[in-house]
Amino acid sequence: MQAKKRYLLLFSAGACLVLLFCFGGIQVPLSRRGPNRRDDRSLAGFHPGARWRRLPGYLQPFSPWEQDRSDDLNEHISPRQKRDTLSGLYTGKRCRMESCFDFSLCERNGFKVYVYPQQKGEKLSESYQNILSSIEGSRFYTPDPAQACLFVLSLDTLDRDQLSPQYVHNLKAKIQSLPLWNGGKNHIIFNLYSGTWPDYTEDLGFDIGLAMLAKASISTENFRPNFDVSIPLFSKDHPRTGGDRGYLKHNTIPPYRKYMLVFKGKRYLTGIGSDTRNALYHVHNSEDVVLLTTCKHGKDWQKHKDARCDKDNAEYDKYDYREMLYNSTFCLVPRGRRLGSFRFLEALQAACVPVMLSNGWELPFSEIIDWNTAAVIGDERLLLQIPSTVRSIHQDKILSLRQQTQFLWEAYFNSVEKIVLTTLEIIQDRVLLHTSRSNLMWNSLPGGLFTLPQYSTHLRDFPFYYAKLGIKPHPKFTAIIHVVTPLVSQSQPVMKLLVSVAKSQYCAQVMVLWNCDKPLPAKHRWPATSVPVIVIEGESKVISSRFLPYDTIPTDAVLSLDEDTVLSTTEVDFSFTVWQSFPDRIVGYPARSHFWDSNKERWGYTSKWTNDYSMVLTGAAIYHKYYHYLYTTYLPASLKTMVDQMSNCEDILMNFLVSSVSKLPPIKVTQKKQYKETMMGQSSRASRWADPDHFAQRQTCMNKFANWFGTMPLVHSQMRLDPVLFKDQVSILRKKYRDIERL
């Protein structure tokens, strides 16, 4: 009897479960794993047991679980928000490079970027015009859309705040009508401001489709890893090129300043972004923690002011923002209406370590930059702990953080051009993954923009990482002698020079670059040496060919020589020994300098013999061969064409390039006034330095080059390196480079 009751009870329970299942009371999950934003497979639309569907536009989620979750969420949003969501504002929310980018467009011509021609009647903001100009002036630009891998709109998408005068209306229809839009595939959209009062959402007001987003103030929730690029918020006054240097002129030990932590900015009484700034007064002490806010902004601020406004405004007016910024160890960067803030870049430039208080903000260029080495990442919910946290940071760490702010500011943020180029380089690294940069290249000097992975992916092949790797450069050099006059005599200066250089214990080989109009001389005309002598005919006979990245250069170091240079073997040995300690700089003998002519308001060039110099001419200098590659691929064709047409200034341009990369001056070795052979005829092409027009051309070059770089990269120096005991009153037998003093 008892057994029958048990069976009946079990049967009844089973029947109830079956009925519940049939009427939807129990739902069985289709997958053991729910979607996770950081799971690339789920984000790409991958679900176990589901097959890919080839749709004309985009990959839609087709999991019943997703549909149910969306329905639950939609119960709490307005009908308009539902319409916007269904219309495809987040069409490409699951996009990754693998699913929404056509790599085949980049296989034919490499990574090239096309900018749409500007449409009639369409106005561009100054900031967006600077972005487009930076792209068009870069080595990535192509005017032919058939060669392009990436496309950039000529429609201004920077400001999508409907209350802004820069807001572009009917952008959705304008974009959809573009013949190359293709649903946004292989497009990138730049944006600084999105959303408007009161919620300031990240909605751009149009369907971006499958396009990548280079956006300021983007949240980690909406950021698509390995697809979007987070960029900094910058003002309309941010320079297009060049940019100012950081304000850290020298390191102070201990690295503390007048203030420990500062902030000065608006306070929002209500709405999004008001909580954090409204609470800052709790940690303000008017001594070393100075956090100032004001309610005095907007038209109706007096109608909405609270009891603290008058006191806050009075305190706010007592302090000068710049003085606070330059005299503080840490700078608070709280969120505003949007996640990003202008305070971020201001703090970086001032060498004031940013303390981030913006929960959910995807920091600028987070894909490549390790922000833990340059900023303190705080939590808005733990505001009261911020002062004690920054006080606990050791002074060694503060010094390291401060130095890194200066590197990052100058490498990636001090101009619109660098922000744009960094964005493009990040995307190029994704496309050409096998030649992408390492984390060390991005986060240490000179930065990712100057370490081109197309040259090499090995750190040891660059002149910047020997100390970090604990290695030394190749122990020998390759000499390149630039020849422009015919070979008529065995007593010509080039013959003497070739023999002297070949005798050096550090010489691996000598390359003779024949840029003369006459045919190449026979092999037996060249002197016999203990090292190989390779004669190469110059490409197009132009002067820039001396800086081509020749495959026949087996060494790290290149000794660049003019044919009429006078150097002894001892001088060559000593200069190479010095270069081994400074492989990222130009090391040599003939020095020149630059100055600012206030009367003419232009840069000047001088060859006067002084104790100050900023250039070492490449007629007798040693540098790393990587600079040949940079000269050829990084510099624009316009500058190299100008140099070739004048047959002048190539040495100045190389100095500009190297100083721009290293941020350091060249190094002059040993006092030597005469480094040119005086017997060269004045009619010779090699003696162009004696031509009166030659000097005037070099003045012009200085200003043309400075204009392209956007700043003056040359750095003055008063350091000259001589051998130990140089000209000391001791026995000549005690000196290693004794022959130098006899010259």
From TrEMBL:
Compartments it resides in: Endoplasmic reticulum membrane
Pathway(s) annotated for this protein in UniProt: Protein modification; protein glycosylation
Catalyses which reaction(s): 3-O-{[(1->4)-beta-D-GlcA-(1->4)-alpha-D-GlcNAc](n)-(1->4)-beta-D-GlcA-(1->3)-beta-D-Gal-(1->3)-beta-D-Gal-(1->4)-beta-D-Xyl}-L-seryl-[protein] + UDP-N-acetyl-alpha-D-glucosamine = 3-O-{alpha-D-GlcNAc-[(1->4)-beta-D-GlcA-(1->4)-alpha-D-GlcNAc](n)-(1->4)-beta-D-GlcA-(1->3)-beta-D-Gal-(1->3)-beta-D-Gal-(1->4)-beta-D-Xyl}-L-seryl-[protein] + UDP + H(+); 3-O-{alpha-D-GlcNAc-[(1->4)-beta-D-GlcA-(1->4)-alpha-D-GlcNAc](n)-(1->4)-beta-D-GlcA-(1->3)-beta-D-Gal-(1->3)-beta-D-Gal-(1->4)-beta-D-Xyl}-L-seryl-[protein] + UDP-alpha-D-glucuronate = 3-O-{[(1->4)-beta-D-GlcA-(1->4)-alpha-D-GlcNAc](n+1)-(1->4)-beta-D-GlcA-(1->3)-beta-D-Gal-(1->3)-beta-D-Gal-(1->4)-beta-D-Xyl}-L-seryl-[protein] + UDP + H(+)
Cofactor: Mn(2+)
Membrane disposition: Single-pass type II membrane protein
Residues of the Exostosin GT47 domain: 108-393
Protein's name according to its UniProt entry: Exostosin glycosyltransferase 1
Source taxonomy: Eukaryota, Metazoa, Chordata, Craniata, Vertebrata
